[in-house]
Amino acid sequence: MAGLYLHVPFCKSRCAYCAFYSQTNTRQQEAFVAALCRELELRREELAPSISIETVYFGGGTPSLLSPSQLEKIVDTIRRVYSPEPDAEWTLEGNPDDLTPEYAHALRLLRFNRVSLGVQSFCDEELRFLGRRHTARQVYSAIEALRTADFSNISIDLIYSLPGQSHQLWQQNLSSALVLEIPHISAYNLTYEEHTRLTHLARRGSIEKQSDEDALRDYYYLVDTLHGRGYDHYELSNFAFRGMHSRHNSSYWDRVPYLGFGPSAHSYLPESRYANVAHLHRYIEYLQQGTTAIDFREDLSPTDCFNEIIMTGLRRAKGVDLQNVSEVFGRKKLSFLQTASEPYLAQGLLILDSSSQYSIEAPSPSICKERVANEGQFLRASREGMVVIDSIISDLFLL
Q1: Pick from 61, 81, 70: nearest CA to 18
Q2: What is the 3-state secondary structure (H, E, C) of 280-297?
Q3: Cβ–Cβ contacts within 10 Å for residue 166, how many?
Q4: Domain formed by 303-396, architecture
Q5: pLDDT digits (tens, 9 = 90+) for 226-251
Q6: CATH 3.20.20.70 fits 2-254, yes or no
Q7: Structural domain boundaries in the chain
Q8: CA 185, CA 237: separation in Å to the nearest integer?
Q9: Which GO terms describe its biological process (predicted)?
């Protein structure tokens, strides 16, 4: 199996926190669509014909800025060249003010079956601060339009730990999402990326970052509240009702091959990773000349692959399958991982569990350690460990 990712690099305005490649000049949309369709055709042979396409993801940028007719050209090319599985997951990221009833209906006619909305907040003041162009009222209208068009698989993004955000306001944001009964929620602790307006404001002292203690309080409120409402906390920042996990994102974490199309898009095949040029004009020029736009490539060593399995595994509820580590990398690397994990197991930040089914909020570390004292097959982060998982992961890497 494999996935396709298509990066649509257009935005009407630039969000204060976003570091993804995008531009606000939309005059090249038609040229971009033509180049993207050409790239889809040129790179088909990178995947063996026997490999099935099970997920297609339009990200950005703001894919919902493309017109239905532009999307149709791309979708038709994908279906003709790659023949995705009949039950493939087709996701489009959208901005709430783009999701009119007519647009939502057009997406269904194109057989999209999942939409991810960049909501971020239900507070208009916070939305203005973040540079979002929609209002809270437009979120409700977009959800209604999607459901009227028969979309049941809807995801929203939320951000917490904003400067000046009170705990009460974060509670209200989460409550607003729960009232809508959204089946998938991605909630992110605000990060300050280089070359963003938010980081510039912080360095000037114009805004004050939220304290680590307040961010931790908000995170625990998030996981406890969503767990109590039946959401599966299946990855550090992702929550979903049973059966509504993002198949596309899960394939990333399972290291399933995928091809990325569009400027700045990344691709992954076993033991290699590569990316397109992060420049729209150059991207279009390459494709008009009949060549691909790849300008970065790296071969992954066994050590790189080991580190990726640790990184992607420990950010997920399922954890790292130790038997798989032993089979793929050998007993020596498994022994390294076990030894490096011991301090975190002793602190209860990591746990060993023999069950393949697990929820981050479920059993306590002490119960887990007693139950699998003689037979641990999965290495996982505990509730407390998930908060500091990035620093733990770095200590488990092979150098």
Answers
A1: 61
A2: HHHHHHHHHCCCCCEEEE
A3: 12
A4: Orthogonal Bundle (1.10)
A5: 999 999 999 999 999 999 999 999 99
A6: yes
A7: 2-254, 303-396
A8: 8
A9: porphyrin-containing compound biosynthetic process
Query: Dihedral through CA 294, CA 270, CA 77, CA 108, nearest 10?
Result: -120
Span 74-122, pLDDT tens digits: 999 999 999 999 999 999 999 999 999 999 999 999 999 999 999 999 9
Say how far apart CA 31 and CA 167 lie, in whole Å: 46
Is the CB of residue 202 less than 8 Å from the CB of residue 210? Answer: no
The side-by-side arrangement of strands in the sheet containing 320-321 is 320-321, 378-381, 350-353
**Cβ-contact 284, 31 below 8 angstroms:** yes
Distance CA 13, CA 22 (A): 10
pTM: 0.93
Instruction: Answer positive or negative: Cα dihedral of 190, 194, 196, 198.
Output: positive
Token couple for 67: 């017109």
